[in-house]
Known about the structure:
Layout: E1 4-8, H1 12-24, E2 29-33, H2 39-48, E3 60-63, E4 74-77, H3 96-113, E5 118-121, H4 126-135, E6 144-146, H5 150-164, E7 171-172, E8 175-176, E9 184-185, E10 191-192, E11 195-196, H6 197-204, H7 211-229, H8 234-248, E12 253-260, E13 272-280, E14 283-287, H9 294-315
Parallel strand pairs: 1-2, 1-4, 2-3, 4-5, 5-6
Antiparallel strand pairs: 7-10, 8-9, 10-11, 12-13, 13-14
Helix pairs in contact: 1-8, 3-4, 4-9, 5-7
Amino acid sequence: MNSKIGIVGLGHVGSQVLTEVIQLGIFREIVGIDIIEHLSDGEALDHQHTRSLYSTNNVNIKGGSITDLNDADVIIIAAGESIQQGSEAPDRTLLTEASTRVIRNVMGQITKVTKDAIIIIITNPLDTILYIAQTEFDYPKEKIFGTGTTLDSARLRSVIGDYYNVDTKSVQANMLGEHGMTAFPAFSKITIDGIPISEYTQIVGKELINEDEIKDYVVQVANDVLNYKGYTNAGIAKVAATLAKAVILDERSVFPVCTVIDKEYGYSGDVAFSIPSIIGKDGVVQKLEVVLNEKELKLLHDSASYIKEIIAKAQKVK
């Protein structure tokens, strides 16, 4: 592979993204970038030392700056502050003001050196930060998307798989809406190896998993990780690397990523949230407006309304 990726922000998440990206084995060059002087150099050196091990690919890893991304194929933005340990709920919107300044700074620099790279955003509050990045800068809209509820959906599949005692990879289920407290499961679409969950429940003779309980669990479990270890990084780093792979290999894989919603579900570009989307070499190839039931539509609109409130606050940040 003759591809290049940049990782902007090398805190707990960005550092783990770097590790995951190296293991993919599809990038010839990886550039780490951070505002802290020499942090990117230290991360590059640390990871370079693993290249002599048989389990690690021999790729070019270096610290650098935004200007080094002029020929990057993918840029992952993980810059910004993290949610503080000890909060009652994982409210990423508390980071709005600081993260808005960060994304404006980063995107302002990126647009000066490239408009070709696919940009994957992790920075929280994700939906709002993605909206700022996608609407305030002259950058191809389809080439910018956020990790969205891809991790939330992995958590959903995990709890369903555990409940029914099956491999979680056999579960097809998505969380939609905000990457945050108002996310919800598209319960009517859940299947286990293509079998609707209600039918599967009858086949195995088990009580149907409670829709509201798993919604609350998936939203809360991120906070459990945060409070147990002080930060979350393993899951989201794996998600970002998986999305980068889908781009480089033009996999046309479907993930619930975050984009500005400009026609689906009646919206017209005034909000961003996660719905299933096809991801390939050009970024977001197509957004998929899946049919939701009445309850799910209400949850979607409630989530969108909440995100709009946060976007309005971000737009006032100077």
